[in-house]
């Protein structure tokens, strides 16, 4: 199931719980949406006298538990926080309003929350008052978009390769031709060099040979 599908199912289940809640004796209903990691404050108000306040949670799986229990005595106030929310709750009271803040919300905090007041009078009678009901839906962050791999480089142009091959062949032919011309010119130059000068004895011997050939 996708994250979107899971969010729709959570919303449907949450609305089902809300309909049941509205059929009860709750006097006020609030639907709130927050993103994961944000904070949310429940403002629990009452006009009467109270000695005990419970913020009760009903999860999507229909489990009930007390998030915090605030006992307001004549001389002192005591807060009892559930172990799953230790370090994540801030409680403050001003006049008739008690504010309870859950910090760093998670998807598991999606649930119904009841501000449940109770008071025992001087005759020992218990008075109950459910003032507010909050339907809180915590949305998970959207998945990060996947980065597509870079496209492969385009294939080289065949016409460019043909042109490059032709230019290299021409250049090689020119180099070979130049080397041939240089070698040929060197050989011709060497054939035109003057004969080394001959010594006197060599000339004399040549004359004798010529005279002998003439006498014969």
Keywords:
32% helix; disordered N terminus; 3-stranded antiparallel β-sheet; 2 domains; 9 strands; 33% strand; Immunoglobulin-like; rod-shaped; alpha+beta; 216 residues
Write the layout of secondary structure elements.
Blueprint: H1 3-22, E1 29-35, E2 40-45, E3 52-59, E4 64-72, E5 77-81, E6 89-94, E7 97-102, E8 111-120, E9 126-139, H2 158-191, H3 200-215
Parallel strand pairs: 1-9
Antiparallel strand pairs: 2-7, 3-4, 3-8, 4-5, 6-7, 8-9
Write up what this structure looks like.
With 216 residues, the protein is α+β, with helices and mostly antiparallel strands. It has two domains: 137 residues, Sandwich (Immunoglobulin-like); 40 residues. 32% of the residues lie in helices and 33% in strands. It contains three helices and nine strands. The strands form two sheets. Strands 1-9-8-3-4-5 form a six-stranded mixed β-sheet, covered by helices on one side. The radius of gyration is 53 Å and the shape is rod-shaped.
């Amino acid at each position: 199931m996708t994250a979107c599908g899971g969010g729709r199912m959570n919303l449907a289940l949450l609305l089902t719980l809300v309909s049941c809640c509205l059929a009860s004796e709750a006097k006020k209903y609030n639907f709130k949406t927050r993103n994961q990691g944000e904070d949310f404050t429940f403002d629990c108000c009452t006009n009467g006298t109270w000695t005990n306040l419970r913020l009760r949670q009903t999860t999507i799986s229909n489990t009930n538990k007390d998030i915090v229990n605030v006992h307001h005595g004549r001389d002192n106030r005591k807060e009892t926080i559930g172990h799953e929310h230790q370090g994540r709750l801030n409680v403050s009271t001003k006049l008739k309003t008690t504010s309870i803040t859950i910090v760093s919300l998670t998807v598991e905090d999606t649930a119904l929350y009841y501000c449940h007041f109770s008071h025992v009078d001087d005759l020992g009678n218990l008075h109950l008052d459910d003032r507010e009901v909050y339907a809180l839906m915590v949305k998970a962050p959207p998945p990060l978009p996947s980065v597509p791999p870079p496209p492969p480089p385009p294939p080289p142009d065949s016409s460019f390769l043909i042109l490059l091959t032709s230019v290299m062949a021409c250049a090689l032919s020119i180099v070979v031709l130049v080397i041939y011309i240089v070698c040929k010119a060197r050989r011709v130059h060497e054939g035109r060099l003057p004969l080394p000068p001959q010594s006197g004895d060599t000339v004399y011997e040549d004359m004798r040979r010529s005279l002998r050939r003439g006498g014969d």
